[in-house]
Known about the structure:
It is built from 12 helices and 13 strands. By secondary structure, the protein is of the alpha/beta class. The chain is globular, with a radius of gyration of 20 Å. Pfam families: Epimerase. InterPro entries: Epimerase_deHydtase, NAD(P)-bd_dom_sf.
Amino acid sequence: xxxxxxxxxxxxxxxxxxxxLDADEWDVAGTTRTGLWAEGLSRYxxxxxxxxxxxxxxxxxxxxxxxxxxxxxxxxxAPPDENGDPFLRDYASVLEKAPVDWIGYTSSTGVYGDTRxxxxxxxxxxxxxxxxxxxxxxxxxxWRAFGARTGMPVTVFRLSGIYGPGRCTVSDLLRIESxxxxxxxxxxxxxxxxxxxxHVDDIARxxxxxxxxxxxxxxxxxxxxxxxPHADVVRYxxxxxxxxxxxxxxxxxxxxxxxxxxxxxWSECRRVRNDRxxxxxxxxxxxxxxxxxxxxxxxxxxxxEAE
Length: 307
């Protein structure tokens, strides 16, 4: 009997998870809020049923309920807004009637706040510094409360900075290289500052491992083994492509043109432990550091050129 996954928010992470799952074992559906985006997703993911969210429209609710009635697994990747988690706000009453064995919620390691470079694990206190991270933590709590009320096991995944094909320095450089336009990424140095990261395929493997063990629930940090400075990652990207890296820019100078969101990321520094991901889920990393991950991105994104 096939397992059926509904991804509430069929974005970057959910799309890679769908690609990771065996189509003979899984039926996948995903949601989006825009019609144009729904058409594009249907074209590039023909095996995935795409539902365009339309609030409480009667015809949509019938379709949505029909999908939920067969849903065995639910992954929530859509971010909360200022009014909380959109799925719980709009569709909790429908979900309560679904035969779901497993619920996964993707949160952020940003809920830990700034630790000035100290390590955090799943037992560390949460001191979110940004409004975005506070909303994530509130959504985590809301989903745990929903699980406790309904008896549905809820697993929370706190994700570090996500990268992969189409979403990293190597991808940016390849686009600039092919289009002969754009502003090349610049290495930025801030003393003592590092970011934790994880390749999207390693996220898919960890989430899949949890899905194969329904009933466990739990909380997992998803990160690779090597928190690293921004400048090291950018310089390595240029090295992979055989290109000279631009001169490193000090953060004090770079920050003058950064967006508020970028500044919020740079305002915090923490190192994220992944021991529980490995011990409880048995999820060994394909890409234990940015070096292996960026090399894999380069190989994958250059494959079409070789065909």
